[in-house]
Automatic annotation (TrEMBL):
PANTHER family, alphabetized: POLYSACCHARIDE DEACETYLASE FAMILY PROTEIN (AFU_ORTHOLOGUE AFUA_6G05030)
PROSITE patterns: NODB
Pfam families assigned: Polysacc_deac_1 (PF01522)
Region (Disordered): 1-27
UniProt xrefs under CDD domains: CE4_HpPgdA_like
Name by which UniProt lists this protein: NodB homology domain-containing protein
The NodB homology domain, residue ranges: 75-299
């Protein structure tokens, strides 16, 4: 997801005349078809975490930078500078903070961001972090034809691989959106995991029309994303509405609950959002709070997906289904 980015509407309903028919008039086959197209399947929480940890912490950063205005055809130096802050200032601050805590993280980066800032992309990988696909130019994939969506994601994989020398194994779709063709595209392009959906607190297997896919989902949530709290756009109603320390309290509560459950605390941030001084303070205090527990496993999303994938080999039982 990204700052200054609003969730785009989903694709028009397909099947019969559902596209021109009010949803309350849809036949049952239509609304059931939509709700079963992409769903959460088997939970993939392990019985124990590596290093004897009680809980896992998966930090992620969407390095969107200038791609949000560029995607929308906005070329104002002011709007571009707002994104440039993430590359010029925010990313470096974030990396130094992660080094202080020895915490690996995942950076989902649009290919255009990587082309604009190749040294930054290489630095992520060079310092032991993961780089993942986040679209070509943070495009709105629900507005694309299936072939165009596939082409852009494939180009993004190729670009990130060429720049960093590391082929991404995970994807976070721009704006966390799924079109009718997104899941099949992700499967066809060989990704190990996705991190765009919200059906659980813990990793799970993605199911397509009732069929398990083998794709691991590391779920996200708006309450664990910095952009909804801190986004500012002076030409519309998007305004920061939460004090940074209130966000810290929310995130601490999220972590504490995950720790009690022996589960996963996943967080999504943006260098050009969290990287500002007063906001980086709360990330530092959050990491202090997490690190004080001792028995916590900091993992990249790829490492977490690997542990989750191991659960696919377990025999199913009533305890492993919901």
């Amino acid at each position: 997801m990204s700052a200054n980015d609003q969730p785009s509407p989903g694709p028009a309903p397909s099947g019969g005349d559902a596209g021109s028919t009010p949803s309350w008039q849809w036949p049952e086959s239509v609304w059931r078809g939509h709700t079963s197209a992409v769903t959460a399947g088997r939970p993939l929480l392990p019985s124990r975490w590596p290093q004897g940890a009680r809980a896992a912490v998966a930090l992620s950063f969407d390095s969107d930078h200038e791609t949000i205005p560029l995607r929308d055809g906005e070329t104002s130096p002011g709007r571009l500078a707002q994104g440039e802050y993430g590359a010029r200032v925010g990313a470096g601050r974030v990396l130094r903070l992660l080094e202080r805590y020895g915490a690996p993280a995942t950076f989902f980066m649009p290919a255009v961001s990587a082309l604009l800032h190749p040294d930054e992309a290489r630095r992520y990988v060079g310092e032991g972090h993961e780089i993942g696909v986040h679209g070509w130019i943070h495009e709105r994939n629900t507005l694309l034809a299936a072939d165009d969506e596939r082409t852009l994601i494939a180009r993004a994989i190729e670009t990130l691989t060429e720049i960093t020398g590391s082929r991404p194994t995970g994807i976070r779709t721009p704006s966390w959106d799924f079109s009718d063709s997104t899941l099949q595209t992700i499967l066809d392009l060989g990704f190990d995991y996705d991190s765009s959906l919200m059906a659980d607190d813990e990793p799970y297997e993605v199911v397509a029309a009732g069929e398990p896919t083998g794709l691991v989902e590391i779920p996200v949530e708006w309450i664990r994303d910095d952009a909804p709290y801190f986004t500012m756009d002076r030409f519309n109603s998007v305004r920061p509405y939460t004090r940074p320390r209130d966000v810290l309290e929310i995130w601490k509560d999220e972590f504490d609950a995950a720790y009690r459950d022996g589960g996963v605390f996943q967080l999504t941030m943006h260098p050009h959002v969290i990287g500002h001084r007063s906001r980086l303070v709360i990330l530092r205090e959050l990491l202090d709070h997490i690190a004080a527990h001792g028995d916590v496993w900091f993992a990249t999303h790829a490492q977490l997906a690997g542990i989750a994938r191991d659960q696919l080999d377990r025999p199913t039982s009533p305890e492993t289904s919901r």
